[in-house]
Design a protein that fits this description.
Blueprint lengths: L1 H8 L8 H38 L3 H10 L1 H5 L7 H23 L4
Length: about 110
């Protein structure tokens, strides 16, 4: 949408070599479409992996993959998931701290 708006405004109009601006802008559009397709494909792959783990009953791995990809999955959406992600971050930090303490004590 941002590219379309910029194309309609053509800020490079009436500048020397404005045709170069047109060419560069078209290259930007092509690259943006390519990146969007790759992002969509990566997201589809991640969702398929999550679904596969969940279907096999490996809910821990499915949840972990959701956690790893939460920025991509929830970008631009409401913040309802943020408290949950924060809770996971806090719990993971506590586990790491406990593991370090146990390693210092040579328990693990």
């Amino acid at each position: 949408m941002r590219l379309e708006r910029a194309a309609s405004e053509r800020a490079w109009d009436d500048l020397p070599h404005e045709h170069v601006g047109d060419l560069l802008f078209e290259e930007a559009r092509i690259l943006a479409r390519l990146l969007a397709r790759r992002a969509r494909s990566s997201t589809d792959d991640a969702l398929a992996a999550i679904s596969g783990h969940a279907a096999r009953g490996d809910h821990a791995m499915a949840g972990y993959l959701v956690y790893l990809n939460h920025h991509a999955f929830f970008v631009g959406r409401g913040g309802e998931q943020l408290p949950l992600v924060r809770d996971v971050d806090v719990a993971a930090d506590k586990i790491r701290a406990e593991l370090r303490a146990l390693q210092r004590q040579r328990v693990v």
